[in-house]
Amino acid sequence: MRFLTETPPPFELTYNDVFMVPSLSDVPSRLDVDLTTSDGLGTTLPIVVANMTAVAGRRMAETVARRGGMAVLPQDVPVDVLRDVVGYVKTRHPVYETPITLGPHDTIAEALALIHKRAHGVVVVVGDGDAPLGIFTEADASGFDRFTQLQHVMSTDVLWVEAGSEPDEVFHRLESARFTAVPVVDHGRLVGVMTRKGALRSTLYRPAVDAQGHLMVAVAIGINGDPGPKAEAAIDAGADVLVIDTAHGHQTKTLQTVAHVRKVADAATIVAGNVVTANGVSDLVDAGADIVKVGVGPGAMCTTRMMTGVGRPQFSAVLECADAARRLGKHVWADGGVRHPRDVALALAAGASSVMFGTWLAGTYESAADPMRDADGRLYKESFGMASHRAVKNRTRLEPGFDRARKELFEEGISSSRMYIDPDRPGVEDIIDEIVAGVRSACTYAGARTLAEFHERAVVGVQSQAGYLEGLPLGTNW
Fold first, then answer.
1. Long-range pairs, 464-470, Cβ under 8 A, ≥24
2. Looking at 66-75, 77-86, 397-406, 409-418, which range is the least confident one?
3. What angle do CA 227, 307, 47 make, to 5 degrees?
4. Strand locations in 214-371, DSSP E?
5. Which residue has the higher pLDDT, 269 or 297?
6. What is the enclosing helix (H) or strand (E) of 189?
7. Fewest C-beta in 10 Å: which of 26, 175, 270, 324?
8. Maximal C-alpha separation, the chain
9. Which pTM was predicted?
10. Bridge partners of 380?
């Protein structure tokens, strides 16, 4: 990447402060751009879901990996639960969506409690041997009390497709029948669900899978307690990446933790952070990190900068840290501060191999929090920062009461925020579509077919606030 002017600006930059100018391009279409990450992990999209308790659970992990990204499971997940979640993700189908299933004698109330857990919007009613009997949608509940059994309201006039059917065939069958979703069966046994959009996406995205063809997932590990056993348990469970996670990554304890985890899990890919300087990158790499997380205070749920004055504008932090990592043969993830697809593209232009975010995905069906409705009936989920009072209280639940109370006095994050589910983009895949469309187009403007070429060819300028506002679309006339 180079700046539009001969000399870089003498001040620090956020994503809002910069723009990219187009260059001569011979890339004819955004579909000619390959977004496979440059860090060698095997992810085919530069998207990492942050290890936020309200966001990154099993549903999020499998859905994002199916499209090519990766989620990081939070550090406060107990080891026994961690094994279950990683094992669950590893057994999910890399193409078909996981169905929500109930039996014919289950009720409408039970179905409605589950149906907003996933974006495909159907409950498949199954019988013996997981044979699909019918489909229930939210519309089927109209006119019936909540105790009505599903066998009395489910639709049996549905399509079934055999596993292995070509995505374009599934799409055309669904379009012809005017259905949005179809159960996928293998010799009569339900193995998944495909939607019209899902069929299209399976031709545009490649799943992030390990050497055995299983979906990839990462696990976060804190620096307190004894991180060694947690790291070993995560690797034994099948985790692909270990993320040593703390707000202040450039401290002796973090370096010691990275070195210790490297000893007990020598072959593992280790991500560590967070830092915002070249020195921080160098020290973490020396300790054993393969990838360094960059960002202090840019997250939407984070109050660190307002509480402490500590942090750094994210674009400048990523630019410096990515350059330092590159000189050492390593990579960085840009963690936080993104609000629009443009920000993801700018982070990649600055040299990040992937971009990490959580709050943007909190208001989706797949986030870990349970859906709720406000007084007007709008669906929302609660989100909170990982240094907030709520997170600290949860993380210290096994400690003595006095020690917990002392720690709960201090917080650097929002404890409760309503993240409304957008009716037009209710699922994480809808947001992925939006991000990928923006990043692919940005690559074509730069004349880049890969992310490595994008960083090499990107030309970035600095703008005033008025310049940023000029680029915002207007939903009404002025």
1. 465/16, 467/19, 468/16, 468/17, 468/19
2. 409-418
3. 55
4. 218-221, 241-245, 269-275, 291-294, 331-335, 354-357
5. 269
6. strand 189-195
7. 26
8. 72
9. 0.91
10. 372, 420
The per-residue pLDDT for 180 is: 85
Question: Which residues on neighbouring strands pair with residue 270, listed in sequence order?
Answer: 242
- One-letter amino acid at 16 equals N
What are the sequence ranges of the domains in the chain? 2-94+207-366+424-470, 100-204
CB neighbours of 125 closer than 8 A, spacing ≥ 6? Answer: 101, 102, 103, 104, 106, 132, 133, 134, 135, 136, 150, 151, 154
In 40-139, the DSSP E strands lie at 47-49, 70-73, 100-102, 123-126, 132-136
Check: CB of residue 106 under 8 Å from CB of residue 149.
Answer: yes
Q: Kindly report the CA angle at 473 between 469 and 478, in degrees rounded to 5?
A: 85
- Per-residue pLDDT band at 284 (split at 50, 70, 90): very high
Give the pLDDT score at 91.
96
- Secondary structure of the chain: what % helix, strand, coil (to 5)? 40, 20, 45
Nearest to 434 by CA among 345, 356, 354: 345
Closest-CA residue to 360 (of 438, 307, 448): 438
- What is the per-residue pLDDT for 340? 96
Query: Domain 100-204: which topology?
Result: CBS-domain (3.10.580)
pLDDT score at 393: 56
Look at residue 389 and tell me whether its pLDDT is greater than 60.
no
Q: Which helix (H) or strand (E) holds 285?
A: helix 278-287
Q: Which residues are catalytic?
A: 302
pLDDT at residue 387 greater than cutoff 70: no
**How far does the chain reach from its first CA to its final CA, in angstroms?**
36
Residue 125: both structure tokens together: 């009613």
Phi, psi at 419, each rounded to 5°: -110, 105
- pLDDT: which is higher, 396 or 25: 25
127 SS3 class = coil
Q: Residues 264, 283: contact at Cβ < 8 Å?
A: no
- Residues present in the chain in total: 478
Q: Quick one: tokens of 206?
A: 């490649």
Confidence of residue 383 (pLDDT cuts 50, 70, 90): confident
DSSP string, 326-385: HHTT-EEEEES---SHHHHHHHHHTT-SEEEESGGGTTSTTSSSPPEE-TT--EEEEE--
Beta pairing partners, 215: 209
Name which CATH class applies to 2-94+207-366+424-470.
Answer: alpha beta
